[in-house]
Write a structure and sequence with these properties.
The chain is built from 15 helices and ten strands. With about 400 residues, the chain is α+β, with helices and mostly antiparallel strands. The chain starts with a helix and ends with a helix. It has two domains: about 190 residues, no CATH class; about 190 residues, no CATH class. Strand 2 and strand 3 form a beta hairpin.
Amino acid sequence: MNFEKFVALKYIKGKKLISLINIGSVALGVCCIIIVLSVMNGFHLELEKRILGHTPHIIVIKRNYELIDNVDSLINILKEIKEIEFLTPFIFTKTLAKSSHSSDGIVLRGIIPENEKKNLDIERNIILGDFDFSSSSPGIVLGIDLAKVLSVSVGDQVTLYSPFSTIKTPFGYLPKAEDFVVKGIFDAGMYDYNASLVYIDLETAQRLLDCGNRVTGLELKIKNLYKARELAKRINKLLSYPYQALDWQTLNKNLFAALKLEKIVTFIVLTLLIIIACFGIVSTLTMLVVRKTKEIGILKAMGSDTKRIMKIFLYYGLFVGFFGAVIGAIIGVLISFILSKYPIINLPADVYFIKYLPTKLFFTDVLITISLALAISLLAAIYPARKAASLVVVEALRYE
């Protein structure tokens, strides 16, 4: 151990209480940042899981959601892309649902049930009934909040109206309608899905909407869902106008942008805890310079140059930051691990989409937080270090 480090550690040991307070303050700031970031990561990943339960990795549609006629040729083109594991056609439109008690606007998705089970994780969210449309009467699967609005349960009847086709009656032209039996109710964990989304069989949807064999688009499942945006750009270059490919992140870009901004702002706000803690390092070292003026003068008289004096105080700040960051990181990682393994903190399920506080710790978050604590601690020591190094030997020893 060199001379500068030895003296810096001696100062830390000599003022144990003050040093412990400074180290503890830095540790508290680091611990808070790691825990909060791990909780935000947990919410982010849980939200992704819920979204991907009802949103394909990529959809290929015509602009303005116009119906596609040549779906088979489109499928043949996309099958040549190796990254695509599975694709299936779907119908998507807004319409009206009515029960014997109430009515509400809905988002209708016509799907091939067997394909949808492979493409999305819908069955996991079914809380009543089954995701099964095979019966003599047309079946429907809808969200839990929509079921409450319509006051229906499994086995009840719901009427869907077509926004495009009409039938002639003695009273004039009326929207085409068809009765469906509720086969299942799902809870996606997201209000937008639970309050509006409805699934029916693709052929039934085509018959209801009177659109023949046309579909709205294709749902794509790919090998790496986090490369969906890159693949969507490739598909857009491959297909000519008016086709376009949209990835799951683009379809929910406002939500993910808000989450990203929230994480950044939270990190900045919590960093203020470390900055406030480092004011303790500044005051401690400034007081140390005043109280140790004679010792600093003696060191300079014995041949210690300005750089060595500065290093002593910089090492003090670095050691305080290092010990505080390491202790805070260990505590933060430990608490995050405990929260991830044991459901200690319960959340109101009717407010949040999960019952327990989720956590997910990333090594990069820990590394960035520790590095930030070290940098701020080192910066906090610069002013008192320069003040100590600028002392003149004669002035320091004048009254000794």
